[in-house]
Amino acid sequence: MLAEHLFGDRGPPAYLPGWLQQTIAHGWLGVDLFFVLSGYLITTILAGNRSAPTGDYFRSFYERRALRILPLYLLVIAVLWAAGGKPYVPFLLICLLFAANLENVFHFPGPPGAGPLWSLAVEEQFYLVWPWFVRWFDSAGLVAISVALLVLEPLARLSPIGGMEFTWGRADGLAMGALLALRLDSVAAIRERSGRLLVCFLAIAALLAVADLIMTNEHLASLAAHLRVSEAVLVFGALVAFGIAYSGAPVSSLLRAPFARITANYSYALYLVHAPLYVAYGRLIGPLHYPFLATQLPSGWLTRGVTVLIASYGVAAFTRRFVELPFLRLGRPTRPS
What we know:
- With 337 residues, the chain is mainly alpha-helical.
- The chain has a domain at 18-183.
- It contains 13 helices and no strands.
- The chain has helices at residues 2-7, 18-25, 30-48, 54-84, 89-96, 103-106, 117-136, 139-158, 171-183, 187-217, 221-245, 258-284, 298-330.
- Helix 3 (30-48) packs parallel to helix 7 (117-136), helix 8 runs antiparallel to helix 9 (171-183) and helix 9 (171-183) runs parallel beside helix 11 (221-245).
């Protein structure tokens, strides 16, 4: 997903292998992996605290989420306001209400660099609804709701109000994560069910891929794009099931490598800051007339991508140390997630 954003509107360079170009071009689906992981994490937290008194159940959840999400989120909004000024105030105000994904409904223009905020809106809207479902329904009911969302969501995306930036158009990733949390809720369940879930998800994804190919060949590319989200959700669900089942095993050692751990710790900040840094690069470096910086040339694409990527990790490290962790410590004994 970061790679797709860093290459900008021109797409990946033509000199890259075809399979890598296609992977980068479909980086927009990476947000669905984020939704699957989020659905898994949030459902695990809520289900584990379901026996608590109602007041403690909701207070603990929302305090923890507020300390995790709000400090950096509000800082990014403040930076976008300072850089963009008055024309973008209406959009930034709806961002404070976690409604950035309704930008097209209100017709408020968003400032450059605000692209990632729509997915945070989906996330926060999920937080408002899902804790109540976990509180009201037992595990069997929640599994049924999750499966229903996975089945019906492709139809919702095809409806006139089913834009993929809306929560009701992207809820299947969250439902997939919830389903995994509910079905793989113990060591015994992981051993018994993870393999079957993995095979099932991949088999359905393969069938959808065939339908996707047929639609594309029949010049129904827009329908195929909606179906592609469902394919991605199933594949990501299989990958998460694999990661849960083989946590600590040699086959998943890459996920425990130092760089993978650092990226996981910085992932929230990386996602929020890379787009504003991309815009800042264009404004500060773009006007400089040096051939190796010209983004029309392959060398310029590479220079821009590497520079913004390194800057994103640097800013993420800084904000993790001085913004995220100090607030997370306020919530102790709750551990950072």
